[in-house]
Each structure stands twice: as C-alpha cells, then as structure tokens.
Write a structure and sequence with these properties.
Radius of gyration: 19 Å
Structural class: alpha/beta
Shape: globular
Bound molecules: coenzyme A
Helix content: 10-25%
Distance between the termini: 80 Å
Number of strands: 24
Number of helices: 3
C-alpha cells in the first residue's frame, strides 16, 4: 500500500448567528452560506420570529444574543438589518458583547483582490467592487450595485440594488445610495445622506442631505 505524504486539511467552518430575520436577512443568509468556511447556526430577531422560509431556525430574541451565542458555541454574528442606523447600533452592541462580525459575500459578486472589506459587510449577488476600493464595516453593497476603482465607502453605508458609483467617489458613514442611482466620478457624499432612487449625482452632497432627480438636487422639506 502506498502511503500518501499529502497532509489532510480539515476546514472547520466558522459558526455564525444572523441578527435580523426578515427579507434582507434571507438574502444575506444565501450569501453567507456561499462561503464554505461559514456555517449559519440560526437567526435572532427583535420579536424572536423569522420570516417564512428564512432557511435557518430562529433561536430567540436579539437582546439575548450573548447567551444564545454562548449556548451555540458561536463567536461571530452577521447583522442583516437593512436600516443603516439600526444596523450600526446592532453591530456596536454585538461588538461590545465580544462578538466578531462575519462578511457575507455572494459567490456571484465580483470583488477585486485589491479591495479592502470591513467586518460585517454584505456584498450581494451581481455586485461589483473594483480595484483599490475601500469598503468599511457593516456596509451593504446590494444586488447588482457597482462600486468602481478607488472609491471609499464608510461604515454602515448602503449602496442599494442597481446603483452605480463611479471611480474615486467618497461615501460617508451611514449614507444610502438609492436603487438605480448614479454617482459621477470623484465626488464626495457626506455622512448620513440619502441619494434618492434613480438620481444622478453630479455635485458633492452635504452631510445629512437628501438629493433626488437628474441632476440630483437637495430635497427641501
Ligand atoms: C428620496 C426619498 C428618501 C424621499 O423619501 P421621502 O422623504 O419619504 O419623500 P416623499 O416620498 O415624501 O417625497 C417628497 C417629494 O420628493 C419626490 N421624490 C421622492 N423620491 C424621489 C426620487 N427618488 N426621485 C425623484 N423625486 C422623488 C416626491 O415625488 C415628492 O415630490 P412632491 O413633493 O413634488 O410630491 C425616497 O423617495 C427614495 O428615493 N428612497 C430610496 C429608497 C431605496 O432605494 N431604498 C433601498 C432599498 S433596498
């Protein structure tokens, strides 16, 4: 008998609990389980109930995450909450409890090997993140969104489905770039701003502003 000298490599999957159990969580779950190195153990939510066909058991209330993680031998979570401010709070709270944050990356996403991805970020199906882009923590790069070269997307931002961000753009913390919006090159969008669905951003956007239309203009309340 010939004895192989090739060592056997056993990959022990990372056990992860998803925080959030609604539609966005369902999408993130599929992306998480695309990684052979991740095993989703279940989800927690505000009311302890999950969406139908969530695809993973609901383990209890999100406020009990520390005890639930301990009981299930889990060291990392993935916060799958679409609202940026709520996601930010949940990520901070889990971090304070000593829990780490996994990355959810769909196998159908294209992410340059020169991109930096922060913990807790979701890169969903059809998304493209090009060379030398920097994506912060807890960011959502949603279905078919594109972030071109050298962009910087700060923590807890959300680039919604089909949005296109050209090269060299800076997007501030917590900002939403709405569905199908376009952002021209080298612009800067301030923190906690909102770019309305379908807008074309041709100038810098101040912090906290909401802009809509083509070309995008500040929505006066
Ligand atoms: C821009 C946005 C935040 C405004 O929401 P809002 O504060 O509730 O504003 P309203 O719906 O009251 O609309 C206010 C005015 O702006 C207009 N408006 C709203 N959204 C617009 C948009 N995307 N483009 C152009 N005009 C828009 C409305 O028609 C309305 O105009 P009127 O006063 O002349 O009737 C919202 O419409 C939007 O586009 N959100 C993005 C949603 C998204 O992409 N989510 C991601 C999910 S994955």
């Amino acid at each position: 008998m010939q004895v192989s000298t090739v060592p056997t490599v056993v990959v022990v999957p990372l056990r992860v609990i998803v925080v959030g159990a609604q539609g966005h969580a369902r999408v993130c779950l599929e992306a998480l389980t695309d990684e052979a190195t991740i095993q989703v153990v279940g989800a927690v939510s505000r009311d302890g109930v999950g969406a139908p066909d969530l695809g993973t058991p609901t383990l209890g209330l999100d406020v009990d995450i520390a005890a639930i993680a301990l009981a299930h031998r889990v060291e990392k979570v993935f916060v799958a909450i679409g609202i940026n401010e709520t996601r930010r709070s949940a990520i901070h709270r889990c971090a304070e409890l000593g829990l780490g944050h996994a990355i959810a990356r769909s196998r159908f996403a294209m992410v340059s090997h020169t991109t930096l991805l922060g913990a807790g970020t979701a890169i969903l199906a059809g998304a493209t993140v090009n060379a030398a882009a920097t994506i912060g923590r807890g960011v959502i790069v949603n279905t078919n969104a594109a972030i071109d070269h050298d962009c910087v997307v700060d923590d807890f931002a959300h680039i919604a489905p089909g949005a296109i961000v050209a090269g060299g753009v800076t997007i501030g913390e917590g900002t939403l770039v709405g569905i199908g919006a376009r952002v021209l090159p080298n612009l800067s969008i301030g923190a906690w701003a909102t770019v309305g669905a379908g807008a074309v951003v041709t100038r810098d956007v101040p912090e906290g502003a909401t802009v809509v239309g083509i070309p995008a203009r500040i929505l006066e309340r």
